[in-house]
């Protein structure tokens, strides 16, 4: 393709080249990868607009990438990949409205520091802070709390460059349809360059984690979900053991969690990973491993008081496959009971499926963001995980298939960052505004500049032709790895 670029285009792209040529993108878990033709790092909106125009002229695909934490091929392309790390400036701060406007490449850990310096904080935060703010809202990244929405719902204004190179500003009062679509757009509408985030005054959280039983939690789920401002729990398959985490705002002095090198690192990380490696050969060890981990690390009261973002985040250990869907929160107990029944039935089979801990549950308030799993409903996100000890393969496909079947029959919607098996007609049924989103996508990206395998597989109507801006040329097929489901 390089020989088709004009001299000025080639010079422009070479100036934005990031890292060594031949770069191969790998996501955090090393489960998906691709080799983009160009790996570029723009610093300004004008550069992004010019890249959109070059892509349109030559029938190229353009995909931004943040931390690469998504366990899917959402960011993959064999064309132009944009590293957004250089777009990390603070643009505006309104202390009275408690908002901060930043460029889209800002990582959440950078954002946490920016907010702390200004006496503000995010109202809710997920398990990690490695993602870029644009990547977090593109997939409706979430924390937990029945009164708290996902990160997409905290955006009050954004700027997006669409597939025609047009810079478009939107909010609840300016182009509201684009705003409600773009706040969770999985990269299908354009490249978000800046966002304004609704925050709150900085606060501390008092977190208490206690052991419980699964039957008690499920039988009193409403009480549990509303028992604190932020609640999540982990179930340990093959047992009735649950760890329930609750956190509330507090003005008490900081008392960080006491960490144990033995319990947290040696037993909870290195020894656990070694045990999982052995279980690849002896999967019947997994029930005892799950019980062992609960007994040694979770079967006690754990308490801490710290700055909010330090309490929200926790160690996700090592590489893993993960699947996560949201269901109406009232259906969460039935979903987990069905999953438990299947896991227990498999345990009784000599060659049945064996699974890792945990099964995690978190609660998120409804929103009006068109493609957020929280659209029109308060949900319980239920996640399943299979670790990859030392990056070794583990069997997970049957587990995923059964899990997704259960979630789908209970009105579930998948987390957009995860690899999943929901397609056009499924999503059309699951999301009331899906048709509106598809129409808007056609207007924002008429030439398919932002269409990669993920978008084509899940979002586009079957057999819809994708035309490139270069008249007479066909659509560019992508060669990034197919999702390993």
Question: Would you kindly provide a written description of the structure presented here, covering whatever features stand out?
Answer:
- With 485 residues, the protein is of the alpha+beta class.
- The chain has 3 domains: 2-84 and 435-458, 2-Layer Sandwich (Uridine Diphospho-n-acetylenolpyruvylglucosamine Reductase, domain 2), CATH 3.30.43.10; 90-202, Uridine Diphospho-n-acetylenolpyruvylglucosamine Reductase, domain 3 (2-Layer Sandwich), CATH 3.30.465.10; 204-421, FAD-linked oxidases, C-terminal domain (Vanillyl-alcohol Oxidase, Chain A, domain 3, 3-Layer(aba) Sandwich), CATH 3.40.462.
- It has helices spanning 7-16, 45-58, 108-117, 133-138, 176-182, 214-219, 221-225, 261-279, 286-298, 308-312, 332-347, 397-409, 424-430, 434-444, 453-458, and strands at residues 25-26, 33-34, 38-40, 62-65, 80-83, 90-94, 99-103, 120-121, 155-161, 167-171, 191-198, 200-201, 204-213, 230-235, 241-250, 302-307, 320-328, 359-364, 379-387, 413-414.
- The strands form 5 sheets. An 8-stranded antiparallel β-sheet has the order 16-13-15-14-18-19-17-20, sandwiched between helices. The chain has a 5-stranded antiparallel β-sheet with strand order 6-7-11-9-10. It has a 3-stranded parallel β-sheet with strand order 3-5-4.
- The longest helix has 19 residues, at 261-279.
- The two termini are 32 Å apart.
- Residues 468-478 have a biased composition (Polar residues).
- Its EC number is 1.1.3.37.
- Keywords: Ascorbate biosynthesis, FAD, Flavoprotein, Membrane, Mitochondrion, Oxidoreductase.
- GO terms for molecular function: D-arabinono-1,4-lactone oxidase activity; FAD binding.
- It holds the Pfam family FAD_binding_4.
């Amino acid at each position: 393709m390089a020989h088709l670029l004009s001299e000025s285009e080639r010079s422009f792209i070479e100036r934005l080249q990031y890292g060594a040529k031949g770069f191969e993108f790998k996501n955090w878990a090393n489960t998906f990868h691709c080799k983009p033709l160009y790996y570029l790092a723009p610093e300004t909106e004008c550069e992004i607009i010019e890249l959109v125009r070059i892509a349109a002229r030559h029938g190229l695909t353009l995909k931004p990438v943040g931390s690469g934490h998504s366990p899917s091929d959402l960011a993959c392309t064999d064309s132009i990949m944009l590293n957004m790390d250089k777009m990390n400036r603070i643009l505006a701060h309104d202390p009275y409205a408690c908002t901060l406007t930043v460029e889209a490449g800002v990582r959440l850990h950078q954002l946490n520091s920016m907010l702390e310096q200004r006496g503000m904080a995010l109202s809710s935060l997920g398990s990690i802070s490695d993602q870029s703010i644009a990547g977090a809202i593109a997939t409706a990244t979430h924390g937990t709390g029945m009164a708290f929405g996902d990160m997409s719902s905290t955006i009050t204004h954004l700027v997006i460059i669409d597939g025609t190179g047009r810079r478009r500003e939107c909010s609840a009062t300016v182009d509201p349809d684009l705003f409600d679509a773009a706040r969770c757009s999985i990269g299908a509408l354009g490249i978000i360059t800046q966002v304004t985030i609704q925050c709150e005054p900085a606060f501390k959280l008092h977190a208490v984690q206690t052991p419980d039983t699964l039957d008690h939690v499920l039988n009193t789920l409403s009480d549990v979900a509303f028992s604190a401002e932020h609640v999540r729990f982990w179930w340990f398959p093959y047992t009735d053991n649950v760890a329930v985490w609750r956190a509330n705002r507090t003005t008490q002095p900081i008392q960080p969690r006491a960490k144990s090198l033995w319990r947290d690192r040696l037993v909870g990380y290195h020894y656990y990973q070694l045990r999982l490696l052995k279980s690849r050969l002896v999967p019947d060890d997994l029930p005892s491993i799950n019980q062992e981990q609960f007994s040694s690390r979770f079967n006690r009261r754990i308490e801490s008081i710290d700055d909010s973002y330090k309490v929200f985040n926790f160690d996700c250990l090592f590489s893993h496959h993960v699947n996560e869907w949201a269901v109406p929160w009232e259906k969460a107990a039935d979903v987990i009971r069905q999953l438990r029944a299947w896991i227990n039935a498999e345990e009784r089979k000599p060659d049945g499926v064996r699974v890792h801990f945990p099964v995690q549950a978190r609660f998120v308030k409804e929103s009006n963001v068109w493609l957020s799993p929280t659209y029109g409903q308060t949900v319980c996100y239920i996640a399943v995980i299979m670790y990859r000890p030392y990056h070794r393969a583990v069997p997970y496909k049957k587990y995923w298939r059964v899990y997704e079947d259960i979630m789908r029959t209970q009105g579930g919607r998948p987390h957009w960052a995860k690899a999943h098996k929901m397609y056009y007609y499924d999503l059309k049924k699951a999301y009331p505004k899906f048709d509106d989103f598809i129409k808007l996508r056609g207007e924002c990206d008429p030439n398919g500049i932002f269409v990669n395998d993920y978008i084509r597989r899940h979002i586009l109507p079957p057999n819809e032709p994708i035309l490139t801006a270069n008249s007479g040329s066909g659509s560019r097929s992508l060669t990034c790895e197919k999702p390993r489901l």
